[in-house]
Amino acid sequence: MLTTLDRYIIRQFLGTFFFILVVIMLIAVVFDISEKTEDFAKMTASFREIVVEFYVNFVIYYSNLFSGLLIFIAVLLFTSRLAHRTEVIAMLSSGVSFPRIMWPYFLAATVLTAMSLFVNHTVLPAANKVRLAFEEEHIRVAYHVDKKHLHREIAPGVFSYFESWDARNKQGFRFSLEQWKDDQLVSKLTSDRAAFDSLSGAWRVHDFLIRTMDGQEERIATGAELDTIIALKPSDMGQRWETSMAMTDRELDAHIAERRAQGDDTVTPYLIEKHQRTSYPFATYVFTLIGVSIASRKVRGGTGLHLAAGVGLVLLYIFAMKLTTVAATNAGMDPFIAVWLPNVLFAVVGVLIYRNAPK
Question: Are residue 177 and residue 198 in the same domain, yes or no?
């Protein structure tokens, strides 16, 4: 059963967090509007579309993204105030143990963790789908490709290849399409350029050559242009990594399996997104443990010193998260380990700080 002290701490925790969240989101929206003013003036979207399709989902996305940092700041702020007014000392002097003081903090952290898990796995993919679709239609190109020599298996035994790809104009250069049967090359189409027609869904190849093998016979056909329909879309060449954030858990798993089947080895960002949807909400417990352990000690400098120490630790956490995700993307680290390792390391740091907290 919750005591008066428990309800007081939970109310202060959640109230401070949501107040900071509202203030930060208002500032973020104002800054984003000032940055995109020129884009809004050029686009054909209505005021309602800008507000409902973009900014409502913008707030949902960034609220969840910054929630860990804001939870940490909220804990530091109101716990530091308690310590500065010697309320923590009064609690301990009255016989309330420090672990018992931590109990309502973790009840509130559990509420926020459950909310974040629900948002990450259910609400956020749908919100991101609308937000990214708005950006792709009105603000920037939908996807990019940052490498050359693109190989894709578009059907069993059918392989495509582009030496380079121009995402903005939906065309590739040095294109080839091979069809294999029983480990034998049946036909091969090569061309200098292949462009995708969005209206017809067909590819137009320029300066092409087709070799067809039938046993010992080989036929060759050439031409200036040829329209052909193949099971390949421009987005298969490459996408914004943010696209993974717009996929449901089931769609994300299917997309990873599809890319692996196509021979695409760039699935690590999608695996990171998959695991972060669970790991990031659980960082709430880590931030709460560290925040209470730091801010509960009354020190000269008060809230300012607590905030400085806390923000320093958060920056280290963000740095560790970036470091491990880069290691997963470029050095072969397992994505699951990459996203959970910072939580584990900083949980250990939190325990060490907790042991030195006032008891």
Answer: yes
User: Does residue 330 share a domain with residue 351?
Assistant: yes
* Band of pLDDT at residue 299, cut at 50, 70 and 90: low
Three-state secondary structure call for residue 228 = strand
How many Cβ atoms are within 10 Å of 266's Cβ, its own excluded? Answer: 13
Rounded Cα distance, 85 and 329, in Å: 47
Residues pairing with 194 in the sheet? 172, 205
> What are the tens digits of pLDDT across the range 211-260?
888 777 788 888 888 888 777 777 666 555 567 788 888 988 888 887 77
β-strand partners of 162: 150, 175
> Has residue 164 been placed in a domain?
yes
Pairing of strands 150-155, 158-166: antiparallel
Do 102 and 156 belong together in one domain? no
Return the H-helix or E-strand segment holding 152: strand 150-155
Q: Which long-range contacts (CB under 8 A, 24 or more apart) does 15-21 make?
A: 16/74, 16/77, 16/78, 17/70, 17/71, 17/74, 17/112, 20/70, 20/73, 20/74, 20/77, 21/63, 21/66, 21/67, 21/70
What are the Cα distances from residue 202, in Å, to 210, 224, 278, 339?
Answer: 17, 16, 40, 40
E strands, 182-302, in order: 184-196, 203-214, 217-228
Strand pairing partners for 15?
A: none
Tell me, yes or no, whether 8 and 136 share the same domain: yes
